[in-house]
Amino acid sequence: MRTALVLGTGLIGTSAALALSARGVRVHLEDRDPDQPRTAAALGAGTEEPPEGPVDLAVVAVPPAHLAPALLALQRRGAARGYVDVGSVKGGPRRELAALGGDLGTYLGTHPMAGKERSGPLAATADLFEGRPWVLTPTPTLDTEVLNLALELVALCRAVPVVMDADAHDRAVALVSHTPQLVSSLVAARLERAEEAAVRLCGQGIRDVTRIAASDPGMWLDILAANPGPVADVLAEVAADLDETVRALRALESADEAKRGAGAAGVEAMLRRGRAGRERVPGKHGAAPAAYETVGVHISDRPGELARIFADAGRAGVNIEDVRIEHATGQAAGLVQLSVEPEAARVLTQALREHGWSVRQ
Ligand SMILES: NC(=O)c1ccc[n+]([C@@H]2O[C@H](COP(=O)([O-])OP(=O)(O)OC[C@H]3O[C@@H](n4cnc5c(N)ncnc54)[C@H](O)[C@@H]3O)[C@@H](O)[C@H]2O)c1
Ligand SMILES: O=C(O)C(=O)C[C@]1(C(=O)O)C=C[C@@H](O)C=C1
Q1: pLDDT class of 46 with cuts at 50, 70, 90
Q2: How confident is the model at residue 339 (pLDDT cuts 50, 70, 90)?
Q3: Might you give the EC number(s) for this enzyme (predicted)?
Q4: Bridge pairing between strands 133-137 and 107-112
Q5: Which of 118, 177, 207 to mutate to test the pocket of ligand 2 (most atoms within 8 A of CB)?
């Protein structure tokens, strides 16, 4: 692929454009808001200049409700040899494009399973898709050349292609992405009017559960409106489990010992089912979940502290698999939790102590 057009230079469009530009593709940037491609171009994602002729691949990264009309407009102006979108829902936009008279031979619906709770080009990174599944939903009428261009896009973004039927994709993301977003929002909504004294106690657990509740409500309404049935099905199952858990907790309050026993069994069963589900979540880069060891390092809230830790770990030859930062309430200090392979934990602890860090293993 030599040339590409990215329409919608927000988080996802700009991240793809950064990856393509870094690998030598000439990327043209377009958006209905002219500030967005200007920012994306300044970050090195490509050029605001319009292409002179059709590009190899057009990548459409606008909100789901705008996908089909945007794809149709690009096809009508002959903007590219092939067209893909990266929307979070796949069945509806394709049916809409077909109903509008769009060409399904040159269009492939795709979905990178990577993102953030932040929107816009300033949140974009070239490595956003690395090692992540990138779903492709080809139909029998799709041109092979377009499928190959899409596979090249995925490879240039260093993602892992996964081929799926569009409606099966929508049911799968209802379970692993859309319902989790709603549940995160529902938990975070409890905090809206909570007492300040309670909110001050927020620890890492609630931060983990509510990170994605910070996402753009407009974008998520668009996503949920394009996949309401499958999401409602999963959420109804969650609601049934919630009802059962509430009943079990009420039974735990009972004066009757037998009822308390049944309540405890109910709560425990739910916790065990949750743990079994969590164990099925793949690890980084789609690999089996790894059992890492955690090394805690106390830091002061000063610029450059994290970079120094990473540099010291690198010099000790230790690969950091994951990192989490806990901020101490009301203090300019925190604890950095470094996840490493079990055999590297001792080496890292010793190396960091030698460099003067206060380490907790
Ligand atoms: N955010 C995520 O985590 C994530 C992950 C994977 C896929 N997606 C999908 O990627 C797409 C983009 O999401 P994002 O997070 O980058 O959103 P974003 O808000 O960061 O960017 C969307 C961009 O599209 C532009 N836009 C909106 N309507 C347009 C139109 N009709 N024509 C031209 N430009 C238009 C906006 O100005 C904005 O710059 C969505 O379809 C979303 O479902 C999002
Ligand atoms: O990590 C996040 O912030 C995301 O929510 C990313 C996430 C997801 O649910 O995994 C969100 C929506 C997208 O369609 C794909 C990826």
Answers
A1: very high
A2: confident
A3: 1.3.1.12
A4: antiparallel
A5: 177
Q: Which ligand is nearest to the CA of 68?
A: 1
pTM assigned to the model? 0.86
In the numeric block, which tokens belong to residue 67?
């996908």
Does residue 123's CB lie within 6 angstroms of at least one atom of ligand 1?
A: no
Instruction: Give residue 341's pLDDT.
Output: 87
- Say what the ipTM of the complex is: 0.98
Nearest atom of ligand 2 to the alpha carbon of 178: 9
Q: What tokens were used for 80? A: 């590219």
Atom of ligand 1 nearest to the CA of 120: 20
Domain annotation for the chain: domains and CATH numbers: 3-164 (3.40.50.720), 171-279 (1.10.3660.10), 293-360 (3.30.70.260)
Rounded Cα distance between 81 and 69, Å, is 18
Amino acid, single-letter form, for residue 110: T
- Residue of 6, 12, 162 to test ligand 1 pocket, by largest number of atoms within 8 Å of CB: 12
Question: What is the mean predicted confidence (pLDDT) over 76-85?
Answer: 98
Mean pLDDT across 157-178: 97
Q: 238, 231, 213: which is closest to 173 by C-alpha?
A: 231
Ligand 1 atom having least distance to the Cα of 119: 20
